[in-house]
Design goal:
single chain, alpha+beta, five-stranded antiparallel beta sheet
Length: 498
């Protein structure tokens, strides 16, 4: 075994990152979540080469990585897309998490004696709470790699749920750890409810205000070196988490909401910030997953009681707890079909967050914390293998998938420009008045900048003859008029760019 200390840490870190990236490529090819391969690489190195088990360092790395992941998730979420499904999304992220924890806790409490284990209901509830949130980031990495979209607004719903349900699971975990930790004192239900409300309200207000402060600062500071903008925003991310936690709010909720605010406002250097944080988020995910893989003792997972309980918990979560939660929480929302509810139930993947939350009982020396951690880890692996590898197939089976159209143009507009760039595909209706560009009626202050035909790009003139299937890059100051014109031409698939 190699001790990761001193000069070896850089070499080992580089090797781990290289192997993880290659594993991620393999995961895309076979339709598996990259998380599963990253965890596998960490477990392989931990079992054969590296001696590493620092609870505090693992928790710290996970906390930093989760802040970046949640912020980027919020920044990539467009409020215009989640507005139609904000009701069901919030219900799944709050009441859904609590219901999942209760249903799962009841199962663990009932089944434990049959396996020769004594697990009090409070400990069973702690185990269930750590794994009550979903990790749909893996789902979308698979769908995007296959250019697969989802009908009935399922993608924004799942993005909203997975991005905002971690704070609820974190709150439940922390409350129960406080009750069960050695030397911990009993906390009444009333006090727990008050504490929860305060944490969520303070976290929400803090996240919103810090997000607005970040937008205001970045747009007015006018840094000469544009490379410093990501550094400035990174400082706001960590400040949002730490300051909110200091004033007794939920730091993870604050980070997510601040990202949502930043992503939905005009921002100086927004494109470069988005590119930076996309890459940086992948790095943080790889580091977190590798660290968790290195942390686990693979031999402990093979103990009979851990194997049995982990497999039963994983199967119950997939087949019973998640479907019950989804169908109950979405009962008031009639717009989702039964197939859509089934799909939402199926893609409730567990990921790195449950494993990270399962470390908190280890830190506070909760009785049977090792058993809890190993069961959560094994259940997560089962979820990733069973659900993660069938995300695309299940969408096709239920008739909810469609092939996404990729943009033919990669453009970057200055944030101060008022004009709007759109991409449309020429159809027969557009050519009804003539086949040349000058014969197509477009609003004033509207220009067709570029044509893409069979992968070839050229700048059109008035007498350029257009063909059905050509892709046009259009810029206009008359956005509403142009949108109405598109509808008159029977063009429904309009891609907004820039």
């Amino acid at each position: 075994m190699i001790d990761i200390s001193g000069e070896n840490i850089v070499l080992i870190g580089a090797l781990l990152l290289f192997v993880a990236v290659v594993a991620g490529k393999v995961a895309y090819r076979f339709g598996a979540p990259a998380l599963l391969l990253f965890l596998g690489v960490g477990m392989l190195f931990g079992l054969n080469f590296i001696s590493y088990r620092s609870v505090d360092m693992t928790q710290f790395i996970g906390m930093i990585a989760l802040c970046i992941i949640l912020f980027t998730g919020g920044m990539d979420t467009k409020f215009s897309e989640i507005r139609p499904i904000i009701g069901p999304g919030v219900v799944l992220a709050t009441a859904g998490v609590a219901m999942t924890a209760l249903v799962m806790a009841g199962f663990v409490w009932l089944i434990a004696p049959c396996l020769g284990l004594e697990i009090p209901f409070a400990l069973a509830l702690l185990l269930a709470s750590t794994m009550s949130s979903t990790d749909s980031a893996s789902v979308f990495s698979i769908l995007r790699s296959k250019k697969q979209g989802l009908r009935q607004n399922l993608r924004p719903l799942l993005e909203l749920e997975s991005g905002s349900n971690d704070p609820m699971a974190y709150m439940l975990t922390i409350l129960l750890v406080g009750v069960l930790a050695q030397g911990g004192r009993e906390i009444g239900i009333g006090l727990s409810v008050v504490y929860f409300i305060v944490q969520m309200v303070v976290g929400a207000l803090s996240g919103y205000l810090i997000g607005r402060l970040a937008v205001w600062t970045i747009n007015r500071i006018a840094l000469a070196n544009h490379s410093l903008y990501p550094v400035l925003l990174l400082a706001f991310i960590f400040f949002s988490f730490a300051f909110t936690d200091l004033i007794r709010g939920n730091g993870y909720l604050a980070v997510y909401l601040s990202g949502l605010v930043v992503g939905n406002h005009k921002l100086r250097q927004k494109r470069s910030l988005t590119v930076f944080f996309d890459g940086f988020t992948w790095l943080m995910q790889i580091i977190m997953f590798l660290t968790l893989g290195l942390f686990v003792n693979s031999r402990d997972l093979l103990q009979p009681q851990v194997l049995l309980l982990g497999c039963l918990v994983g199967a119950f979560m997939i087949l019973v707890a998640r479907p019950i939660t989804v169908f109950t929480c979405l009962a008031p929302f009639r717009k989702f079909s039964t197939k859509a509810r089934l799909y939402i139930s199926w893609v409730g993947l567990r990921g790195a967050v449950p494993i990270l939350f399962a470390i908190y009982p280890l830190i506070e020396k909760v009785p049977q914390a090792d058993l809890l951690f190993n069961v959560v880890f094994l259940s997560t692996i089962i979820s990733l293998i069973v659900q993660g590898t069938t995300v695309s197939g299940m969408a096709n089976l239920l008739g909810l998938a469609y092939e996404e159209r990729e943009s033919a143009f990669d453009v970057n507009m200055h944030e101060d420009m008022k004009s709007e760039l759109t991409e449309v595909e020429v159809n027969a209706s557009m050519l009804a008045t003539g086949h040349t560009l000058k014969e197509i009626s477009l609003p004033e202050n509207t220009l067709v900048m570029m044509v893409c035909r069979n992968g070839e790009y050229f700048v059109p003139r008035g007498n350029t003859e257009l063909l059905t299937g050509d892709k046009l890059l259009v810029i206009s100051d008359r956005n509403e008029e142009l949108a109405n014109k598109y509808r008159d031409m029977g063009i429904n698939d309009v891609m907004k760019l820039g």
